[in-house]
Amino acid sequence: MSIRHGLLALLERGPRYGSQLRTEFESRTGSTWPLNVGQVYTTLSRLERDGMVAQDGEDGAGHPLYVITDAGRAELRTWFERPVDRTSPARDELAIKLAMAVGAPGVDIRAVIQAQRHHTVRAMQDYTRLKARAVSALESGGEQRRDDVAWLLVLEQLIFQTEAEARWLDHCEARLIRLSAATAPQDPPPPEAPVAPPVARTARRG
Q: Could you say which of 47, 72, 80, 82 would form a disulfide bridge with 68 (CB–CB 3.0 to 4.6 Å)?
């Protein structure tokens, strides 16, 4: 998640101070990725160091205001135009957990998958309910329409992500079942029944 670019995008709309940026960032993303004020000001300091923002006076309450510079606007345009790099994917805790669970002594990996599946389905249901509310807010045409659209896009990404995770978990379980069947020791064939010796026939005497 690029906090610095998110802050630049908000500053392009006009001067902001730290806690205001935090509030607007969380409003735009539905608090999916909460920030603390210290994190915001640390990022602003780095942006100021890099010449992408500058302090520009204070508001009526004495909060220092930050504005975006031309260099910051150029960086923001580049960020919007550049695809998100997937060649170095972020570490996924679930993938790491299942990878480490394979062959771990005393760990039932299918139980791990089942527990995660229940959690994923619950999350999907929660996101779906939140999406219904976001759609309802959009249809009402309130003043927060821009933030509602942004929140809806984030929610739909989360829904697609959890749906994909649920399918992946189903795939993992099916894969483990197939591998278990393929590597299971084969039962030896049942012993053949002994063949009874032929019964000698007694010649009939005339």
A: 72
